[in-house]
Design a protein that fits this description.
heterodimer; A: alpha/beta; Rossmann fold; 10 helices; B: alpha/beta; about 15% strand
């Protein structure tokens, strides 16, 4: 069963085509990566899929609801962690969650559970403005999970966080996925997408330019090569597409010159650069 | 419109506003305006012990009614002629001269003349309160349209000055101004609260929550109403 179905979705802002005729599906329980440069249309897509923005054209169904006509039914079914740390900073962590619980009609006993889930129970009464970036991000995730959504939208959840917090968040995302929560993730970190996502879509200038599993993308677009370290310590790369690759390798083996031999598959970032024309950081 | 969502929004905003000095100041402005009116216009919405000089040799029902009116001090005058002077001399709000057979003439429908002095040196609110009180008391004498015929005389009036305002206008002007202050505060603060949500980017959270835009705006209006009323 598909948690998200998108068909020919577009959005324009005056003359700017922010999202241009994109189509994809996301299965229930899947972690789906949506990757692209700044301004590629990731956040606009999330805003359309979460009912914040009406599409200019096309259809999208999220958790079985039409995003254009069934927004009221859709909203309690999804959780959203926005790219901005949009907390009420004059309120404590618990007050932020208590407000969300009242909005969603969630049992207030869930508040401490959610705080515990993200490791913030002992700082629950501190004002959110005194939280570190990592704590704010964890509180945002707790708020998005409070009403036990079937589908979670994470917009750059680990941006600007230290590696330890990033790792905790990735672990939490994986755990959610094993519990059947569908995760729609945008990130700048290709390694993160590679580790977490079952499939990724590359977005460039509002269009999906590639969509597949990270492994398939690496195989299809990466350069096939071997990294060879020779006995004298020098290294060598043999491109397997080369006609002479076999002979070259045989010669090295016969001469007993090889110390180590590694496959050098492309990284997801290299694949992205190859497809989209430039890196995410550019 | 979901009352739970509206109440949740209002409750959150009240907690947030109490911790936000700028917003709290904006919300409490109508209360400051109201206090200012109380200080500058002491007659607003209350009878501040009006002093009224009365000449009533016939012990009329009208004066008996006035005697039972709270915050109204009646000062007896020996003669009809002295009453006008005593209003100014004793700085009373007004004076009243009741003819000898006043009650009998009212009952007979003769429309007896009732002389009422108004001290123009008193503030307009006090004058208006006095005028309205007298009109109300006279019309309540009998349950008939024709009762007494009041003759209003303004004392201590500067030559060329404007006549005193009608009681209804004066009575409604200040409450209207206060109402306007409350309405304007509401009209300014509700968008201010929305702009703050937008600036903090928390509006995105609200728009992804089950709250509709109408519920968000109603919640803000309820916040303003709860704090200023």
């Amino acid at each position: 069963m598909n948690a998200i179905e998108v068909e020919g979705l577009s959005r324009t802002f005056n003359d700017l085509q922010a999202v241009d005729n994109i189509s994809f599906t996301v299965e229930a329980g899947e972690i789906f990566g949506f990757l692209g440069h700044n301004g590629a249309g990731k956040t606009t897509t999330i805003r359309m899929l979460t009912g914040q923005l009406r599409p200019t054209a096309g259809l999208a169904r999220v958790a079985g609801c039409d995003v254009a006509t069934e927004r009221h039914r859709l909203k309690p079914l999804v959780g959203v962690v926005s790219e901005n740390q949009n907390l009420y900073e004059r309120m404590s962590g618990r007050e932020n969650l208590a407000f969300a619980a009242r909005l969603y009609g969630t049992d207030s006993r869930r508040i401490d559970e959610a705080l515990d889930q993200v490791g913030l129970l002992d700082r629950a009464t501190d004002n959110a403005k005194h939280y570190s970036n990592g704590m704010k991000q964890r509180l945002l995730i707790a708020r998005a999970l409070l009403h036990r959504p079937r589908l979670l939208f994470l917009d750059e959840p680990t941006r600007g966080l230290d590696p330890m917090v990033g790792r905790d968040i990735r672990r939490l995302v994986k755990e959610l996925s094993t519990r059947g929560v569908t995760v729609f993730l945008t990130t700048h970190y290709m390694e993160e997408a590679d580790q977490l996502c079952g499939r990724v879509a590359f977005l460039s200038e509002g269009r999906i330019v590639a969509l597949d599993t990270p492994d398939n993308l690496k195989v299809a677009h990466g350069q096939k090569s071997l990294n060879v370290i020779l006995g004298d310590g020098t290294s060598l790369t043999i491109a397997l597409d080369d006609e002479d690759a076999g002979k070259q390798l045989e010669k090295l083996v016969n001469a007993g010159q090889i110390r180590t031999l590694h496959s050098a598959e492309a990284t997801l970032e290299e694949v992205f650069i190859q497809i989209a024309g430039r890196g995410l950081a550019e | 419109m979901n009352p739970r969502v509206v109440a949740a929004l209002a409750r959150k905003d009240i907690v947030d506003a109490i911790r936000n000095r700028y917003l709290l100041t904006a919300l409490l402005t109508p209360l400051f305006v109201a206090l200012l009116f109380r200080v500058l216009m002491p007659g607003v919405n209350s009878l501040n012990n009006l002093n009224v000089v009365v000449h009533d040799t016939g012990n009329s029902v009208l004066v008996a009614q006035l005697r039972n009116t709270p915050k109204l001090n009646l000062i007896a005058s020996a003669s009809a002629e002295a009453a006008a002077n005593e209003v100014e001399k004793k700085k009373a709000t007004g004076g009243l001269v009741v003819p000898v057979n006043f009650d009998a003439d009212v009952a007979a429908g003769k429309e007896p003349e009732l002389t009422i002095y108004v001290n123009s040196k008193k503030n307009i609110i006090e004058q208006a309160t006095f005028r309205q009180l007298m009109e109300r008391q006279v019309s309540s004498l009998v349950k008939q349209p024709v009762t007494a015929r009041p003759v209003w005389i303004e004392l201590g009036k500067e030559p060329g000055s404007q006549p005193g305002g009608r009681p209804d206008l004066n009575q409604t002007l200040l409450p209207l101004l206060l109402l306007l202050a409350f309405a304007m505060t509401g009209a300014l603060v509700v968008p201010l609260l929305l702009v703050e949500e937008r600036e903090q980017r928390t509006l995105d959270f609200l728009l992804t929550s089950p709250a509709s835009l109408a519920e968000i705006v109603t919640g803000k209006a309820l916040t303003v109403w709860s704090i200023v009323c």
